[in-house]
Amino acid sequence: MKPLTEPEIRAAFVNCTKGEASRLNVPRDLAERPWDDLDFLGWRDPQAPDRAYLVAELDGRPVAVALRASSAAAWQARRSICSLCVTPHSGGVSLLVAPRAGKAGKQGNSVGAYMCADLACSLYVRGKKEVGTKFHESLTVEEKVHRTVTNLAAFVAKVTE
Question: Which one of 86, 92, 94, 109 is at 20 to 30 Å from 70 when CA atoms are compared?
Answer without folding.
Answer: 86
